[in-house]
Amino acid sequence: MAEFMASMDVMIFHHLAPFGLAAVEALAAGVPVVSIAAGGPLDFIRDGVNGYLVSDVSSKAFADVILSHVSAMKSADMRLRCSKDAIQRFSWDKTANQYLELFGELTDGLGRGEGLVSSRDGRAADSGDGPS
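Above: the chain sequence. Below: its structure as tokens.
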């Protein structure tokens, strides 16, 4: 699949998605992404750097962006930027470390008697493990 993705000149990601793993995988393979300027793509597409964002969902709007930037998208420079950026921001190592940091933040206060949810008077909420 990676070989197929790497053979593309551009990936068109035309639907609204909360993230867009397929588009990020294309970026990692060095393929610029043209996508709607909404939802998840706003988090991973840097307009003009690793792809292009389209504000209008019409096929004409997508075609206009692709035709006006086709030579830039086919350049080795943009393809390298796509790959480096995706690997730096979305590798499994990076993702795992972000989860570990989040879990550490969430559990950091638990050892000091702080619950994740507290009652209105500031005391730790009942965990439901038994009588209070």
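The mean pLDDT is 84.
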